[in-house]
Amino acid sequence: MGIEKRFVMENIGLIAGNDRFPFLVAEEIKRSGGRVICIALKEEADARLEKVCDKTYWFSIWKFQKIIDALKSENVETIIMAGQIKHIRIYSAINMDGRAVKIMDSLISKKADTILKAVAAEFEKDGIHLIPSHAYLKHLLAEKGLISGKKLSSDENKDVEFGYKIAKGIAGFDIGQTVVVKDKSVLAVESVEGTDECIKRAYKLGGENSIAVKVAKPNQDFRFDVPVIGVDTVDILKENKVRAMAVESGATLILDKDEVIEKAEKAGVTILAV
After folding, report:
1. pLDDT for 4 beyond 60
2. Do residues 132 and 222 touch, judged by C-beta distance below 8 A?
3. pLDDT tens per residue, range 154-189
4. What residues contact 145, with CB distance under 8 A and at least 6 apart?
5. Which CATH superfamily is 141-273 part of?
6. CA angle 58–63–67, rounded 5-degree value
7. Dihedral through CA 137, CA 139, CA 140, CA 146, nearest 10?
8. CB count, 10 Å around CB of 225?
9. Class for the domain spanning 3-130
10. Which pTM was predicted?
């Protein structure tokens, strides 16, 4: 049964972080016949979401019981998390309610994925099911091959292969999902600072014509985290004189794809999916 039939006329909850991702999810939910009940995270979400969603509640990230209560009051049984939440927000104890404190206290490991899995389990206790972030956006997943720009040279393709192996390795250790390489040397590895800052750091250390590689984690839980690139990504690549960016096919969303391709072509940046 397809997404369009399964969720038609339902109230779908959207836990919204920052950037374009939540807007695209909201638009697709409405296009397929659902109503969007948005839980906009005060520290991250864009106020313009109120114009796209059918109803919007504003809560701080760890006001967990209020979020649950709002979703239940709207008869929401299915939710999607979309949009980046800065790691510092996830680990901050500021404004935690009692239920959030219990979640955190119950964890031995406080990796981001561990925390989010515990959050998902807590939603389930109230009959609220978290579905993959890209459930409505699978048509935006990168397909294998050249997406924009010139074909890479033999040496550049070798850098992609090298970077892919390294990126998969660090992703498996839950360190990050992006590496920047040049001449088979690692310039920067993504950590909690995020992809953009990793790319900026690589340029400071290694200069222009590097290769950025972004992958999914092994056994990625797409309910919480889908690798995403968009127009802002192209801006960062251009500003830091990155030669190319490779993403994992079938596991990376390209938001506003036509605009991404146009901008990358003008910037002379190659984007490919491997």
Report:
1. no
2. yes
3. 999 999 999 999 999 999 988 899 999 999 999 999
4. 249, 272, 273
5. LpxI C-terminal catalytic domain (3.40.140.80)
6. 60
7. 160
8. 19
9. alpha beta
10. 0.87
